Amino acid sequence: MTTKTLTFGDVQVGAELPELAIPITSTLIVAGALASRDFTPVHHDKAAAQATGMQDVFMNILTTNGLVGRYVTEWTGAGGVLKGVSIKLGAPNLPGDTMKMKGTVSQKDDATGVVVVDVAGTNGWGDHVTGSVQVALPKEA
User: Fold this and answer.
1) What span, in angstroms and rounded, lies between the C-alpha atoms of 92 and 17?
2) What is the pLDDT of residues 77-120, one digit of tens each?
3) Which residues have C-beta within 8 Å of that of residue 94, sequence separation ≥ 6?
4) Which residue in 106, 136, 137, 108 sits closest to 119, CA to CA?
5) Taking the alpha carbons of 17, 23, 24, 28 in that order, is the dihedral positive or negative?
6) Is 8 left (phi over 0), alpha (psi -120 to 50) or beta?
7) 127 pairs with which residues across the strands?
8) Helix ranges restricted to H, 13-137
9) 97-125 exposure pattern, b = at least 16 Cβ within 10 A, e = fewer
10) How far apart are the C-alpha atoms of 130 and 133, rounded to whole Å?
11) What are 14-45's pLDDT values in tens digits?
12) Under the phi-then-psi rule, with left for phi > 0, alpha for psi from -120 to 50, and beta for the rest, what region is 126?
């Protein structure tokens, strides 16, 4: 990802963000569920997840939402401010898989300095998450 803060002028529509591979572990899934106060058993209890037909615990939407935000703000650097995240879940994230995040700048609003990034996170089953992120960037460094 970037080590400097991107400015609005640095970014062009159609620009692709670097891919980010996120290893999916039981620890990540359970920690994300606990941190977001989601105590639904399928996110921390393997037997409960298996009782629903899944092979193991699976990631909750709040953890996915946080990973999407992290992906975009690591690209923008410290000056990027999330203004909106709109995502849809698809295939589950299970331990032992890797989610590969990709993004493309789809819009720029000169009046607000907001950039829209379309994102997708895929794993071995297909699209885990798709959506868009609105992020405000500084006009200059």
Assistant:
1) 23
2) 999 999 999 999 999 999 999 999 999 999 999 999 999 999 99
3) 24, 54, 55, 56, 57, 58, 59, 123
4) 106
5) negative
6) alpha
7) 122
8) 26-35, 46-51, 61-76
9) bebebebebeebeeeebbbbbebbbbbee
10) 10
11) 999 999 999 999 999 999 999 999 999 999 99
12) left
Contact predicate 58/137, CB 8 Å = no
51-54's contacts with Cβ under 8 Å and 24+ in sequence apart are 54/92, 54/94
Place of tokens 């920690």: 31
Structural domains in the chain? Answer: 14-136 (3.10.129.10)
**Count of C-beta atoms within a 10 Å radius of residue 33:** 22
Cα-based torsion angle of the residue sequence 42, 88, 32, 72 in order, rounded to the nearest 10 degrees: 160
